[in-house]
Every structure is written in C-alpha cells, then in structure tokens.
Amino acid sequence: MLLVLDESLVAAIPLQREVTEDIREALDIIGDQIYFGRHALFAPQRILSHLLMVNGWSRRLIQVLKSARDHYSERQRLFSAINLVGNIHVTAIPNPSRRMVGNRAWIDIPLAWIDRPEKLNSTVVLGENLDDVAVYDCITKAMIPRDFQRAFPISMERGPGGGGNIGQVFDGYVNSHRNVLCFVDSDYKYAGGPIKDTARQIQDRFTDGGPALAAWSRTRGRDLENTLPDAFYVTRISGDANKRAAVNSLESLSIAGELELRYLIDLCDGHKLADLFSLNPNNPERTYWIPRINDLMARQTRDISQLPCLAANTCANVTRAEGCTCLIFPGFGKSLGAFVQYCSSTPLSQVRGQLSSAQAEEWQEVAELIFDWCCANRAKQV
C-alpha cells in the first residue's frame, strides 16, 4: 500500500522541540516496514524536508525519508495512478477509518495507532485455497505495466485457503489489525442467481462498509476457472480427445460473444442432466439450463440423442444422480494449479493477449485492486 505522510505531522513534530517517544517509535516502525519492502512511501516535499531537519531519527528512517525525497517524481506518479492510499496522520481518533475523495479511497491511519510492526506488515491476500491466491498473483503481474512493477513490486502475504471457514479466517486477520484483501468465487448457478454461502460470509462483513483495513472481491461468473483464457484449456485438455470438443465449445462461445453462458459453465465438475432433473420444474437453475442444452451440445458437435432422458423429460437414473450418463458438459477437474504452471512457462504478455474483452476487463479490475493494496518500495532499495 502507498503510505502518505500527512501535513499534521509537521505541526506535531516542531523543529525546536524533542520528539515524543510514541511518535518516534511509530515513525521508526513505518521506516522499517518501508525499508523491508512491505509498503511504499510518499509525502509532499515540504513534509519530507521538515522531517529531515528533525534530529534524532534512526539511520534507517533517515534513509527512507531521503529516498522518498530523491525519488519524488517516481512516487508522485504512483500517487497519481493509485486508487487507494494509507494516510498517516496525527489525530485524536484512535482507529483507522476510510473515506472517499473522488474515486480514490483514503484510509486514515492514526500515527498513535501504529504501536507494533505487525500492524504494517504486508497485506494478506486471502482466497478459498492457496491456488486461488497464486492465480491472482499471476493476474496482477500480467496486467500491471512492467515499469510500475519494477519500481513498485508486489508485496503480499499469501493467506491460507479459507475454504468454507473463510469468514472466520478473515475475522482473525481483522482482529489482529492486519490489512487483508479477500477473494471468493460467486458460484453463480444461473444468470441472476444468488452467491454461494462462502462468498456471502465475506459479503455480510461489508454490509455496513466493512473494516477500514480490508477489502474483498468476488468473481463475475461462477468460479475463478471461468476467467481463465480458452487457450489455456486448449493446452490443458489437448491430450484428452473426449474433452477436446468441450474446449472447442468454449472458444465458440467466446467468439460468438455468448459470454454469460461462458461465465456460468461449471468448468470444474461439468453438468449432468440428472442434476437438473433433481430440481423442481420451476427451479430457476433448471429453467435457465434446460433451454440452453441444445446450443451447448451443438457447440460440442454432439448429437442431442446422447441425452436420451431429455426427450422423456425425466431421469431414468433417479436413485443415483452421480451415475448419470447424460453428460451435458464434461468438467475439466481442478485447473488452477495447472494455470499457475502455464503462466510460468508462457510470457505473461501472451497470456494477456489470449483473454476475451470481458476477461481482460475483470483481470484489470482485480490487478488494480491487488496493486493498490500490495504495492511497495523495493526492499532495502528505498
């Protein structure tokens, strides 16, 4: 996160007086965390000049302040581009708070609140599992301009997979006064459908604005897998002739601009007719998918006769849906770990070029959110 030193520090640290111990300790913590590459620092030249005239700072803090002064233009460029800043100020208000100024979020962080280093550790990026966070890291590196990444590398602490208990894990970080950025799958079953319980756990924590030092995001489609480019699935499924037609259908949907359906397909577990027939005839998930089966089968160059139960409008295998042979769309299994490997062997500029317009828009939004919370100065090169 870009930490900005507020004008109120000048009034609180007059040149002719000795700096109080609490102010000195708080600024030393800031200096240490910037020095070790956990956040970035910016301040107007007047504030930097004032602080550098104060006697008694640690050598490391002086180094950090001089670097902010000497690289002022570079830091100002970041300040102009970023959507979130942490405003370090002197106030009687005890805890951090958030406000909007135009399109930028300002987190006002009281200097007195900074009483231990852990409060300014790198932002925790939390997902439903570890592979999620690794994919989000790849997305950020693919979308943020390389010159920004060279000057302000991403500094994140990868949280453990929260899974079904992600709300409790999230609360643990918040209660420990940590910056935390949480990503969840929406798990939409159909267009306009509700988000799943895991995502709702996090959404409910932001009903009234949420913690000042936290943010969250959910996928626009069903799962994170739906945001991955078609070209990746072509590579991943290339050795499985039975699923190659399904990959072709993804490409067909993207080319035709049928992005809603492309974003709602269960790419992990697939779709079986028995799962739909197990639902009430008026269930919105069933009424969404049944009319789209013919189109989805045709895009896979599969004949509708492969779904004999569809014509009868009833499942012949009602006792065991998992044994259903009426396969609407085959799942590809867990793919996120494979995508991380794909990104390590494929130029990220090439991966970026493989995205549909909708995917690129979502990736850019996610990348900017992560960069806002995780940008930092280079460790020991402040």
Keywords:
elongated, alpha/beta, 11 strands, five-stranded mixed beta sheet, 3 domains, four-stranded parallel beta sheet, Rossmann fold, 382 residues
Question: Can you put this structure into words, describing what you see?
Answer:
The chain starts with a strand and ends in an 8-residue tail after the last helix. The model has no long low-confidence stretch (mean pLDDT 93). A hairpin with a 2-residue loop joins strand 4 and strand 5. A 5-stranded mixed β-sheet has the order 2-1-3-5-4. It has 19 helices and 11 strands. The chain has 3 domains: 2-119, no CATH class; 123-225 and 338-374, 3-Layer(aba) Sandwich (Rossmann fold), CATH 3.40.50; 227-335, no CATH class. Helix 3 (45-52) runs antiparallel to helix 4 (59-70) and helix 6 (130-143) packs across helix 19. It is of the alpha/beta class.
